[in-house]
Amino acid sequence: MAESETPSRKTPATVAVRLRVNGTDHQLEVEPRATLLDTLRERLGLTGTKKGCDRGECGACTVHAGGRRINACMTLAVMHDGGEITTIEGIEGVRGEAGPGSSRSIEVPLHPVQVAFIEHDAFQCGYCTPGQVMSAIACIAEGHAASAEEIREWMSGNLCRCGAYAGIVAAVAGAAAAGRR
């Protein structure tokens, strides 16, 4: 094929997308092939959602879309046009006490499930923790935290390379028992 006959490689056209992420509306121009994960991390700077396998196998990129947990690497941003997305940065904190004996209330930037993860030592390196927490919140809200076996089944899409599974199951069970969502 002569040089003039070489097919040109064009960048795909962009598409206008409106995403409501963590309660804030964002108007974006994205390539039609841009994943929700890459859009969150690269365009919106929300790097708490991790890129692990980029094939939907590890769960490090778990977010909530329209109230359901999904792997952000396995969906396109354009599929969520007009949709509501919640990332680890958008989960609500809880009110707590300033310390033993204090009557002063302070804002604690941790979700109750994050507190349970700390209490049960449910992480080691921390890379999978945002996805684990997002899945745990959904697992509890979906009513799938009645037993250790059920928690393991419903959390099985989230892998931990460090093997902190005993702590993760204990954290989900503890948060569920305490009514934490």
CATH superfamily of the largest domain, please? [2Fe-2S]-binding domain
Q: Evaluate the radius of gyration.
A: 19 Å
Provide the spatial order of strands within the biggest beta sheet: 2-1-5-3-4
**Percent in helix:** 25-40%
Number of alpha- plus pi-helical segments: 5
And the CATH topology of the largest domain?
A: DNA polymerase, domain 1
What is the second-level CATH architecture of the largest domain? Orthogonal Bundle
Oligomerization state: single chain
| Helix/strand/pairing category | alpha+beta
CATH class of the largest domain: Mainly Alpha
Query: What proportion of the residues form beta strands (DSSP E)?
Result: 15-25%
Order of helices and strands: EEHEEEEEHHHH
Domains, number: 2
Detailed description of the structure:
With about 180 residues, the protein is an alpha+beta fold. The protein has two domains: about 15-90, Roll (Ubiquitin-like (UB roll)); about 95-175, [2Fe-2S]-binding domain (DNA polymerase, domain 1). Helix content is about 25%, strand content about 20%. It is built from five helices and seven strands. A five-stranded mixed beta sheet has the order 2-1-5-3-4, sandwiched between helices. A two-stranded antiparallel sheet has the order 6-7. Helix 2 crosses helix 5 (about 165-175). The model has no long low-confidence stretch (mean pLDDT about 90).
